[in-house]
Specification:
Blueprint (H helix, E strand, L loop, with lengths): L1 H18 L5 H10 L4 H15 L14 E5 L7 H13 L3 E7 L3 H7 L4 E6 L10 H16 L4 E4 L7 H16 L4 E3 L2 H8 L10 E3 L3 H11 L9 H12 L3 E4 L4 E4 L4 E4 L11 H9 L3
Parallel strand pairs: 1-2, 1-4, 2-3, 4-5, 5-6, 6-7
Antiparallel strand pairs: 7-8, 8-9
Helix pairs in contact: 1-3, 4-11, 6-7, 8-9
Keywords: ATP-binding, Kinase, Lyase, NAD, NADP, Nucleotide-binding, Phosphoprotein, Transferase
Catalytic activity: (6S)-NADHX + ATP = ADP + phosphate + NADH + H(+); (6S)-NADPHX + ATP = ADP + phosphate + NADPH + H(+)
InterPro entries: CARKD (IPR000631), Ribokinase-like (IPR029056)
Amino acid sequence: MLGSSSSIIRRQQFLIRALGGCFKKQTHQRFTMQSMMSGSALEADALSVLRSITPTLDPTRHKGQAGKIAVIGGCREYTGAPYFSAISALKIGADLSHVFCTKDAAPVIKSYSPELIVHPVLEESYSVRDEDKISISKKVLAEVEKWMERFDCLVVGPGLGRDPFLLDCVSGIIKHARESNVPVVIDGDGLFLVTNSLDLVSGYPLAILTPNVNEYKRLVQKVLNCEVNDQDAPEQLLLLAKRIGGVTILRKGISDLISDGETVSSVSMYGSPRRCGGQGDILSGRQVIQ
């Protein structure tokens, strides 16, 4: 019985940590204190948190009111990442989840789940002649832009790859999302893109960056022109978010740190001891419906 309760608590703590990127310090402190209490007390509090960030079930609502999200990513090499991101949003409670990917990736992503709406509109350099790049880029942007006003949030980067032409097209998508005031979560190769083109997100308060250890290191080197300082991690993160200009940064690690350039919060709940591929993609999809 005790073993069963412990496994339930661990799963709940993992969910809380995965979903808790935007928790305030008070919430984190409450969970830390309750982790010393009985399992039933922690379980009740865990349920209240999960309910507070999950769309409510309401018979008067129609399709789409609980959230419509889009993932921009998926190429020849990477098809799992956009799937994990898009499907996790549905699992938490979003109504509709779209994936905008390359033509090579689309059949594979479609085969993973019938729940996803897959748009094979992105292009990579190998399939585009130099003289056609301008016209095809405009076509790609037009295909995404006609859907933009329907979305509550974008996730940019899971499985995107680093093809130069593809990244140029995605830069245009981010710019249009910003003009339309659509929130954007930047993860994976999307972070590679914005690290080298900070103007895409600089000064945009509806942007969330979710770097892992290596991605955070590149951001710090680019923006602060120094190395990562783990001794003063909160202060450095605060300065980084402020320098970029109002974005929110979720620095993933043993203890997750979150800052919008004004405050810093920490989430140190128990998570999976494994650090396998796909966990960050799941987190990116869960953030879009908070």
